[in-house]
Design a protein that fits this description.
The chain is α/β, with parallel strands linked by helices and 307 residues long. The chain is built from 11 helices and 13 strands. Strand 9, helix 7 and strand 10 form a beta-alpha-beta unit. The longest helix has 15 residues.
């Protein structure tokens, strides 16, 4: 990729999603489709689809699933040169269970099989490899989420190092709250303190209203802006739309009226669209508009990412 163009780097876990060919309980599903998943990887693909040069820093296993994931990134125009391959630990995966809704859409429930995965061994050393260090040195944007520090102590240390020691001087640091209570079970108070600190240290904060209520105690966008004055951008979403702040400026937008198949991954696509707008110099309203357009592509299928 040309070194003169803005580069976005996404840091976090990639997984293989096994998605049933038909809706129903897992015990009756016989056929599953394979797909790429993982919040930061979904966002990377959304950024690339918007014309942003994008790379992922992560780890996968030395297995077929890991090779599938890196191949999918390349097929979507995302740089995989800083993804380490672990000879011992496997690539993580999850199985999606699809339940039909009366309105004709389906609701996805995720069942994770990620314990001991290659990505759980993310550590500060991951950021210090020559490939990762070179990407971070060029980055105009670095994106990560609240999932990464939940994976393991070493992954939490890696994210802390990203915020403290390896933060590019001239890059925006983007943080998507992505509250996953199952990953923090028994550590909820610690998680809320940790995630609150990361939110304050970010330049861009994304959160859904339910996640914000669970972690920060409020879902009101104006209250969240007051609670987190440090980030330049604060973006609060719900199925009906979004409210975004750029310093003291405020913009509100409604979600686009588009066919919905299943919504998992829509928030990641939305984040990618908004960040692409920011990198392109769009206004706050323009960035929201781009975010909504890209999010509609994620809700059009049972895949977690846009195509």
């Amino acid at each position: 990729m040309p070194e003169s163009t803005p580069l976005a780097v996404c840091f976090g876990e990639g997984m293989v999603a096994l998605v049933p060919a038909t809706a129903g309980a897992l015990e009756i599903c016989r056929t599953f489709d394979r797909s790429l998943a993982g919040a930061e990887w979904n966002t990377a693909i959304a950024l690339a689809s918007a014309g942003v040069d994008t790379a992922v820093v992560s780890r996968v296993g030395d297995d077929g699933f890991g090779r599938f994931l890196t191949g999918e990134l390349r097929a979507h125009g995302v740089d995989d040169s800083a993804i380490e391959v672990d000879a011992d630990a496997p690539t993580g995966l999850y199985v999606k269970e699809l339940s039909p809704r009366p309105d004709g859409t389906v609701e996805g429930t995720m069942h994770y099989y990620r314990a001991g995965s290659a990505a759980a061994a993310l550590s500060p050393r991951t950021l210090e490899t020559p490939a990762a260090a070179a990407l971070l040195a060029r980055a105009a944007l670095v994106h990560t989420s609240g999932i990464t520090p939940a994976l393991s102590d070493s992954a939490a240390a890696a994210q802390d190092a990203l915020f403290r020691d390896h933060r590019p001087t001239h890059a925006l640091l983007s943080f998507d709250l992505n509250w996953r209570p199952a990953l923090w079970r028994g550590r909820e108070d610690h998680a809320k303190r940790l995630l609150g600190g990361l939110a304050r240290d970010a330049d861009v904060l994304f959160c859904t209203r339910p996640d914000a209520a669970a972690v920060f105690g409020t879902s009101d966008p104006d209250a969240l802006r007051a609670l987190f004055p440090e980030p330049r951008f604060v973006v609060v979403t719900d199925p009906a739309g979004a409210v975004a702040f750029d310093h003291g400026d405020r913009a509100q937008s409604d979600a686009l009226d588009a066919p919905v198949v299943e919504t998992i991954g829509a928030g990641d696509a939305f984040a990618g669209g908004f960040l692409a707008g920011v990198l392109a110099g769009l206004s706050l309203s323009g960035s929201l508009a781009r975010a909504h357009r890209i999010a509609t592509r994620a809700i059009a299928s049972t895949r977690d990412h846009v195509d």
